Amino acid sequence: MSSGKSLQPTKYAEYKYNITAPVDFDVAVKYAGALMAIAGADGELAEKEFQWYVDEQQLLTVDSQEYIETLRKFDWKNANIEELLSGISYDFPMNFRRVMLYQAIKMSRADGTYQEKEKAAVAKAAEILGIERSMVVSIESLAEMEDASERLRLALFETDV
Predict the structure, then answer these.
(1) Residue 9 bridge partners (DSSP)
(2) Rounded CA gap, 51 and 30, in Å?
(3) Comparing C-alpha atoms, which of 91, 100, 24, 87 is closest to residue 56?
């Protein structure tokens, strides 16, 4: 049963992910719960990993404080990824399955390492979502390229890398 609450997307959310409609709060919690379970597959949800998602949500949603507080209390260690993923759908033109894997990979890499257990959890989520292995490799490569591009941008502008 839905609480009836929703998260309002920003213009940046439309630009980055084509999110054009409010997101059901409870669906968003399931989505983030799956991400936390994947990023925590190595036994720890590092603060930098969680903070990556918090920062992302602050860019994507208008008022995310209640959502973030709900996620801080979420029991990601005992989350059933398959159950969480089965309760996710959206009413706007976004391939949430690919976006979810992308965000799971970015979140898992946020602490500076992409552990084998995190990679395995991404692969399991991809299987549940019906995403081919070649697409997972492509999304992982995108995340790596973005990180390298960010370091290059900072280096070019003589910022501490």
Answers:
(1) 61
(2) 18
(3) 100
- Can you give the pTM of this predicted structure? 0.90
Q: Phi/psi at 18 (nearest 5 deg)?
A: 65, 35
What is the Cα–Cα distance from 63 to 74, expressed in whole angstroms?
19
Residues recorded for the chain: 161
Model confidence at 2: pLDDT above 90: no
The amino acid that residue 99 corresponds to is: V
User: How many angstroms separate the CA atoms of 93 and 80, rounded?
Assistant: 26
18: left (phi over 0), alpha (psi -120 to 50) or beta: left
Residues 45 and 35: their CA atoms lie apart, in Å, by 10
- pLDDT, tens digit (0-9, with 9 covering 90-100), for 89-113: 766 667 889 999 999 999 999 999 9
SS3 call for 119:
helix
What gap in Å lies between CA 11 and CA 2, rounded to an integer? 25
Residue 95, pLDDT score: 85
